[in-house]
Design a protein that fits this description.
The chain contains ten helices and 16 strands. With about 325 residues, it is α/β, with parallel strands linked by helices. The chain folds into two domains: about 180 residues, Medium-chain alcohol dehydrogenases, catalytic domain (Quinone Oxidoreductase, Chain A, domain 1); about 120 residues, NAD(P)-binding Rossmann-like Domain (Rossmann fold, 3-Layer(aba) Sandwich), CATH 3.40.50. Strands 3, 5, 6, 7, 8, 15 and 16 form a seven-stranded mixed β-sheet that branches. Strands 11-10-9-12-13-14 form a six-stranded parallel β-sheet, sandwiched between helices. The longest helix is centred in the middle third of the chain and has 14 residues. It is globular. The model has no long low-confidence stretch (mean pLDDT about 95).
């Protein structure tokens, strides 16, 4: 069955370059293959990885060639199912993320996903929040719960606490009973304190001196979402048995390893169990995903300029309706 739709389109790049490379092109929705579903997309999560794939700076760029559709996250409604799919039917609302070996992108009004790569969206969870939850959610969960193994008696320093991943790491660490020091600019103060963290304004004071004054013996955990000018100084404020998680995939952990410090970089892969758990926790009010900016998919060039600036006040999501 063909799913022709005169309003179906994708935002593509024909070559690596700046935000101006995006072009809107009509695209007939593809048929889902065995084990796949076709989703009419309503919302699309935007991430810093996206602009690095657009400008050619990501290591993943060696694995695909423009013209290409970018994007990894999406939410929407199932409109067709492929052979062998019995977990979803047309009309189901779903959200999820492409695996890192799947380069079909999500910047389009219709997207085919593996049925085992998405989960059902709870009735009371809106598509904008759902679309932005997968990548930041799994990154924060892996960092806080699987690698740092944050415990109730821990003290935790978080760099980049104002961003999408940082805000979720803050909430997850607080939820585990830890004492959390959240480093971010002043505009995030009310939000971070509301999460139950102590806010350190890195623009007004020396973060590391503030940590030393409060915890002379060091903190138990550092979750470093900034890395470049924070990783090395963070090693000096860790307790003797402390551990550090650096979020950038290309972070060099050698200085920590040489000092015998436990250090990790999150290895991110699709985990629908985590997606479903995060969605349930958002619905229950245990955590929230602050949305910093919502734009239409046709405004993707502007979205990428904001991504590159790096100062979005929360998650960036594009709508495709």
């Amino acid at each position: 069955m063909a799913h022709n739709n005169s309003t179906s389109y994708a935002m593509i790049i024909n070559r690596f370059g700046g935000p101006e490379e995006f072009t809107q092109v009509p695209r007939t929705p593809a048929e889902p293959g065995p084990g796949e579903i076709l989703v009419k997309t309503t919302a699309i999560g935007a991430n810093p990885l996206d602009y690095k794939m657009r400008d050619g700076s990501s290591g993943l760029c060696a694995k695909f060639t423009p013209p290409a559709v970018l994007g990894r996250e999406a939410a929407g409604e199932v409109v067709a199912v492929g052979e062998g799919v019995d977990s979803f039917v047309s009309g189901d609302r779903v959200f999820g993320m492409r695996g890192f070996d799947d380069f079909r992108g999500t910047y389009a009004t219709h997207n085919v996903f593996p049925a085992d790569g998405v989960v059902r969206t709870p009735d009371s969870l809106d598509d904008v929040t759902a679309a932005g939850l997968a990548l930041v959610g799994i990154t924060a969960t892996v960092a806080v719960e699987q690698l740092a193994k944050v415990k109730s008696e821990d003290t935790v320093l978080i760099h980049g606490a104002g961003g999408g991943v940082g805000q979720l790491m803050t909430q997850l660490a607080v939820a585990r009973g830890a004492t959390v020091l959240a480093s971010a600019s002043s505009r995030h103060h009310e939000k971070l304190v509301g999460f139950g963290a102590q806010h350190i304004d890195y623009t007004a004071e020396d973060v590391f001196e503030a940590v030393r004054q409060q915890f002379p013996e060091g903190v138990d955990v550092v979750l470093d979402g900034v890395y470049f000018d924070t990783f090395l100084p963070s090693l000096d404020v860790l307790a003797s048995d402390g551990r550090i998680v650096a979020l950038p995939s290309l972070a060099d952990l050698t200085p920590a390893k040489e000092r015998g410090i436990e250090a990790h970089i999150p290895a991110i892969s699709n985990d629908t169990t985590i997606y479903a758990d995060l969605a349930d926790r958002v619905v229950a009010g245990e955590i929230s995903l602050p949305i910093g900016l919502t734009k239409n998919l046709t405004e993707v060039a502007e979205v990428h300029r904001v991504l590159e600036d790096g100062h979005a006040d929360g998650k960036i999501v594009m709508t495709a309706e």
